[in-house]
Write a structure and sequence with these properties.
Structural class: alpha/beta
CATH superfamily: PAC-like subunit
Order of helices and strands: EEHEHEEEEHEEHEHHHH
Distance between the termini: 52 Å
Helix content: 25-40%
CATH topology: Rossmann fold
CATH class: Alpha Beta
Shape: globular
Radius of gyration: 20 Å
Strand order of the largest sheet: 1-3-6-7-2-8-10-9
Low-confidence stretches: 258-266
Oligomer: single chain
CATH architecture: 3-Layer(aba) Sandwich
Mean pLDDT: 91
Largest sheet: 8 strands, mixed
């Protein structure tokens, strides 16, 4: 098989967990992307492999950034998709797959990611994502599972549904075929804030990763950012009785532990537009 990556380092790792955040698929509130950014900024990473963007990406969809200085083209840059290794705060080994979801060669990419995970002795593959749902921002985000085995879903939401998949789902399925436990963690983000950063989702994803995989990953400043975000949303909603009533309805359903499908007709578009304006102004 034609390799899609160049190997940079071959570290000796002890049962690492592979954590994946690949941009390009559903990521409400940038829950997964911001979680990946926090990990990238707060862990001492060492590159293991770089994937070939020319084989995997559609440059017209993900154009490089050109830097001009006094009319001179001085630099051309694009985000790399890389596999790196690091240690969590307790010294456990982890592998991080960060970057863009490929536009091409999904099957080959998935197989080669799992090949690398097996080569370095991984004990688990774990992907992060987030999706919008009618849920209140005043409750901690719930996490749904897409797992290879029931034991990995304990304490998580377990849905029965057919939905389109991103490449992370394909990697998780490929890992399961190789007897490597795999789970996708999906944060539920309130539908009325899904188009703006929602740090509470990122925080929930990292904390759940720590629980499911037995890790001690850093959370950076996500606690403070989540508190500021909630305060700003509270302030805006309190100004409109209709929005307050909608929030109370969402809270009632959340506290009764009912399914979100009952609230699928609840519209948050007007609130989302006002929230975007409010957050821009502040």
């Amino acid at each position: 098989m034609n390799p899609l990556y160049s190997l940079v380092d071959q570290p000796t790792l002890e049962s690492p967990v592979l954590v994946m955040v690949l941009k390009g698929w559903i990521d409400a509130g940038l829950g997964a992307a911001d979680a990946g950014e926090v990990l990238a900024q707060n862990l001492e990473r060492h590159t293991v492999a770089r994937f070939d963007a020319d084989q995997l990406l559609d440059w017209r969809a993900r154009r490089p950034t050109m830097r001009l200085v006094d009319g001179i083209n001085t630099h051309l840059a694009w985000e790399e998709t890389e596999l790196s290794w690091a240690k969590d705060k307790s010294g456990r080994d982890i592998l991080l797959l960060l970057g863009n979801e490929p536009d091409h060669a999904w099957m080959a990419f998935s197989e080669q990611v799992v090949d690398l995970a097996v080569q370095f002795g991984s004990r688990m593959v774990l992907g992060l994502g987030a999706y919008p749902t009618p849920a209140p921002h005043t409750r901690p985000p719930l996490i749904a599972a897409a797992a290879s085995e029931a034991a990995l879903t304990l304490g998580l939401l377990r849905n029965t549904v057919e939905v389109p998949s991103g490449v992370q789902g394909m990697i998780e399925r490929q890992a399961a075929r190789r007897n490597l436990p795999a789970v996708g963690l999906w944060a539920q983000v309130p539908h009325y804030v899904a188009t703006m950063p929602y740090p509470a989702a990122s925080l929930a994803l990292i904390e759940t990763t720590n629980t499911v995989a037995g890790l001690d990953l850093p959370i950076g400043d996500l606690v403070d950012r989540a508190a500021v975000s909630q305060s700003r949303i509270d302030e805006l909603i309190a100004q409109n009785p209709e929005h307050t009533a909608m929030l109370e309805q969402l809270e009632q359903h959340a506290d009764q532990d009912t399914t979100t499908s009952e609230l699928s007709a609840t519209s948050g578009e007007d609130l989302a537009e006002e929230l975007e304006r409010f957050l821009r102004d502040h």
